[in-house]
Amino acid sequence: MALLRQVREQSGLAYRAIERKAASAGDSLPPSTLATMLNRTTLPREELVVALLRATGHDEQTIDQWVRARRALVSTTEPAPAESPSPEDVTSRRRPLSPKILAAIVAVFVVVAGALVVIRLLSGPEGLPTGVVRIRSVHSGLCVDELPDADSGDLLQVSCANTYVERTFVKHDDNTYRIVTMHPVYLKGCMGAAGGKPEQGNPVVDDFCHQLGESVKFELVPTTEPLTGYRLRFVESGLCAEVLGASVRERAAVQQAPCDAASKGQVFAFDTA
């Protein structure tokens, strides 16, 4: 999965561009499917792997190596299929993988194992998970994200299984944080106050970092009351991100509000995605 994400990143293509290139090759790879595929920790379907590789300009010989690598991994984690394989499948599985692909698979396992150790060390009460995270509303169990079919960038509560935008914490020397986003279509951006306006009631959004001004800097304020987690406090305004009315329903808006020690809607947790 790490290598597949690298393929997408190195292509320099936005998700919509990959969809168009896949369609021109006779494949179907919608942006929402691609985002889900690259965010998962289990192997995606073979046809999705092939579609991504074709759309990013890989030749058939390289694609065949990827397919055989995937099948080799599947054979160690999934039961054999009930139906008999075709002669072509038997032939391709018996052909040896190239040393380059084998080395890449081993490297991924080593990196992932090391990353899991780091996450375990950093994800305690005094630390944050590294890498891509989900921001979860503690009171509702829902996650903060955009809707895939909306262009506003407004952040709402959604099912954590349906998160769409990748988020990563970047720590500054003054112990403040920027929340960097990777959108499937608009690519790199930041989380901040809409229009960069530090105003009560103004939506919290994802946007290009330069559009958000100083509103991209947050303090992560730990709290145990009324719930255990963190408040996201805007450094510029002193306001906090809040799920409006501490609602527990999906698509409830996230806005700037005066920091309130009694507000359940201002308490968030950060989970490894």
Shape call: elongated
Would you identify the regions where 5 or more consecutive residues have pLDDT less than 50?
78-97, 108-125
Element order: H for helix, E for strand: HHHHHHHEEEEEEEHEEEEE
N/C terminus separation:
13 Å
CA-atom Rg in angstroms: 21 Å
CATH third-level topology of the largest domain: Trefoil (Acidic Fibroblast Growth Factor, subunit A)
By DSSP (H or I, 4+ residues per run), the number of helices equals 8
Domain count: 2
The first-level CATH class name of the largest domain: Mainly Beta
Beta-strand level of the residues, as a percent range? 15-25%
DSSP, total strands: 12
- Structural classification: alpha+beta
Overall pLDDT level:
82
Helix content: 25-40%
Please give the largest β-sheet: 8 strands, antiparallel
Q: If classified by CATH, what would the architecture of the largest domain be?
A: Trefoil
